[in-house]
Amino acid sequence: MTTDPILSRLATLRASDLPVRGGRTMAYVYDSGLDGLEELANAAHAAFAGVNGLDMTAFPSVVELENDLVRRATALLGGGAGTFTSGGTESCLLAVLTARQHARRTRGVTDPELVLADTAHAAFHKAAELFGLRVVSVPVDPATFKVRPADLAAAITDRTALVVVSAPSYAHGVIDPVPEAAAEAARRGVLCHVDACIGGWYLGHLRAAVQGGGFTQDAPEIPEFDLSVPGVTSLSVDLHKYAYTAKGASLLLFRDAELRRHGWFAHSSWPGYPVVNSTLQGTKPAGPLAAAWAVTEHIGAEGYAALSTRVHRAVRDLAEGIERIDGLRLLARPEASLLAVAADDDAEGAEVDVFVVADEIRGSGWYLQPQPVFGASPANLHLTVTAAVADEETVGLLLAELEKAVGRARAAGPVRVDPAIVEAAAALDPDALTPEEVEVALALAGVGADGRLPERMAPVLAVLQALPPKLGERLLPEVIGRLYQP
C-alpha cells in the first residue's frame, strides 16, 4: 500500500492553514526558530506513540520522563510536586478540581466559589461550569488591567475554594500582583493558583538570564510570581508554549504532593483493574510527554535563557515601534511576551478599526489575533512574540507591514454596525432563541447557512462584539457547529 496519496491529501489540507513556523502567526503557535528541533520532537513522539500512560506500572518509562520534567520545572518555578497534562486548559481544570476537593475535604465547603480577575483565562470559567463552582469575577484596574488585591480580598468568603491570578494575563500581557493576592488568600486559609501557562517557562528563564549576568544594561524587572511566593499553592505552565515542545504538553505544579493528591481519581469498586488517574484522561498518550522531554533536554537551561532574552528584546523593539505608528497605541506596557495593540483615539486623521487592520495585515501573510471590546478594554490586536520573530529583520518587516495595514485600514474606514441590529439583538432572549432567529442573527453577522466564514472577518467581529455577551455566547457554538458537518 502506498502512502503517497494519503500524505499528499494531508499536505493539501495543511496548505490552507496558518503557518506554524516562521513567526508570522502571532497566536496559537510557538516557534523557537531552531533548526532540527521539530525533527527531534517528531522522532521522540514516534518512539512513544504506542505507549499508554494510563498504567505507569506497565509503562514505567512515563514515570521517569514525567519526573524529569517536573523536576526541571520545580527547580525553575518552585513547588514540590507536579503532573504532566495535555495542555493549559487541562492544567487549569485540574487546579480548580483539586481546590474544590481540598475545600470539600478539609473545610467542609459544599457550595464552592472561584474568585478570579475578569481577565482570567476562559479555561477557569469552563472548570467552574464543569465542576459546579460559582464564579466571583473581580474587575481589574482599567488603567493597568491588573487586579487590585483589595478587590480580591473583598471577594473572598468562607465558600471560596480558590483564588486565581495570572502571570501574565493573556489579553494584555501584564502580571497580576501575585504576592499581595496570595497573601490575602493565605490569610483566609484559601488556596491560590497562578496561571503562568503562557509566561512561566519564559519568565523563569528570563529571570535566570538576568541573575546569570545575561544583561549588561536594561535588565528587565520581573515581579515575583511563582511557587516561591508565600501563599501560592499551585501554578500551571505550558511546555508547548515557551518550552517550544510539540502540542499537548503542560505541567500543573503544586506546593507539595499532599495537595496534589486531592485532584487525583482512584476507583477499585468494580470487577476490572484498579484505576488511578492523575489527569482528566484515562488513556494517556505518551508521545507528547516524550517529545517534551526530548526538546527540553536538548535546549537546556542555558538555551532557554538565551531564547527568552531574544524574545524580551523583540518585545521591547516591537513595543517601541508600535508606539511610533500613527493610529496605534499599546494598551499596557508588556511585562512578558505578549502585546495588546489598540487604536489611538487621539491620533490625527481618520479613525482606525483594528479589526480591519487585522484583515489587511493577514493579506500580507501575518496573523494578529483580534480581541473584541470587554469592559474597559477596547477592541485590540493580540501579538504573541516567539523566538522566531526575535531578529532585527523580522521585527522591522512586521512593523513596516503593520504601518501599511494601518494606512489601508484608515483609507477603508471602520466597520459600522446598524444601530437597529443592536437594538433588536438586545431584545432577544439567548435561552429562548428559535431556529429562525438563529438564522437571522447569523446572517446579520455574515455567516451563511453553508457554514463558510467570509474571508474578511472585521464585519463579523464588529457584529459579534455589538451583541450582548450572553447572546454572543449562544451564537458562537452555532457558528462553529456549522463548520463541523459530515
Automatic annotation (TrEMBL):
GO MF annotations, alphabetized: transaminase activity
Keywords from the named record: Aminotransferase, Lyase, Pyridoxal phosphate, Transferase
InterPro entries: GrpII_AminoAcid_Decarb, PyrdxlP-dep_de-COase, PyrdxlP-dep_Trfase, PyrdxlP-dep_Trfase_major, PyrdxlP-dep_Trfase_small
Residue ranges that the Swiss-Prot or TrEMBL entry lists as coiled coil: none
Cofactor annotation: pyridoxal 5'-phosphate
Family, similarity comment: Belongs to the group II decarboxylase family. Sphingosine-1-phosphate lyase subfamily.
PANTHER family reported for this sequence: PTHR42735, SPHINGOSINE-1-PHOSPHATE LYASE 1
Identification of the protein by name: Aminotransferase class V-fold PLP-dependent enzyme
Provenance organism: Streptomyces kunmingensis
